[in-house]
Amino acid sequence: MTDFGRTTLPYCSFVRPGDDRACVGVGIGTDVLDLTAAAATVVPGRRDLFGGGSLDALLAAGPQVWHEVRLALATHVERDDAALAEHLLPGGDVELLLPFAVADYVDFYASEHHATTVGRIFRPDGEALPPSWKHLPIGYHGRAGTVVVSGTPVRRPSGQTRAADGTVGFGPTARLDLEAEIGFVVGAASTPGEPVPISAFDQHVFGICVVNDWSARDIQAWEYVPLGPFLGKSFATSVSPWIVPLAALEHARVSPPPRDPEPLPYLRDEQPWGLDLELVVTIEGTVVSRAPFSSVYWTAAQMLAHLTVNGASLRTGDLYASGTVSGPEAGQRGSLLELSWNGAEPVTLDDGSTRTFLRDGDHVCIAATARLADGTHIELGQVDGQVIA
Hints:
The chain has helices at 35-42, 56-61, 63-79, 82-85, 112-122, 201-204, 217-223, 300-308, 336-339, and strands at 11-15, 23-28, 31-34, 88-90, 95-97, 105-108, 139-141, 147-149, 154-155, 158-162, 168-172, 176-177, 180-186, 205-212, 215-216, 237-239, 244-245, 253-254, 274-275, 277-283, 286-292, 319-321, 347-348, 354-355, 363-371, 377-388. The chain is an alpha+beta fold.
């Protein structure tokens, strides 16, 4: 169980041992507050938001209610009153669930270091970045139905691949990869046909989670031209069970990298929505990457503005992710594709074994922290998954 301290106040959905009734929880230190049970005392008048056991009703309630609930929780935590104590459970004693119903899923390609490294791997003699990359946040629609909660085993997918001699075959992927990402959870819906301006980002996005968008690189390489990712990406996307409210990250906001050329007006951000986060990736217990989210070129606010600029509407429970987060250094790359340079430079684990891509049985963990303006850090949770045959 992550130690969230007493001010982050992330939300989850959980069940108690021997009970299949889902409850809404809040992380306080290493304990879970049963907010479904405590709501009558902690947030009187808002019990209906938590009776269903998921975050769906809270997400749909909108930013004013999000603020009211968080303020009430913070007040009770600061007082350390008995109303909380009787509803606190040790974090290790509960089973964490997918905390909200995922409506749609979109994955972006927002890290310049990631996109540039991938471009150099596959186009060593050409332009690393696609022509549109610095003009708009590139993304694709994924499958909401294959978003799974941390701890869910990930079965190695099968699909078509093409060998070096041109032979096309079918079978399990030989190049299963991880992708270290941050996800953004939409709460308040928008009106179809009306774009969401960049200034309204925090009126629609409730919070963040940690994401591993698993990828089958050999399947992806054969299928993605000309329309982009499909079966190589759609088999599983793992998310952390904790949703950290944007309000908890107010002091982790930083200016994003300089943009050149200047974005079009709908993508110009007067308020900085870069976030000073670090994603630590481990494979079988070995730290293989520490990826800095502050280096991501396109912010979550710009991603949302671009996602809706054509009139596409938001629904409660929409999830969109940053794409692989990578930094400028070799040890900051958020995928094995980059870390192993597409298999040419194997990664050595602490036990002496090497990886170019993931093996059956490998356990992957991505944990995230935020650095605040005063130099302190807060934990944001982690996403775990194990590869099975």
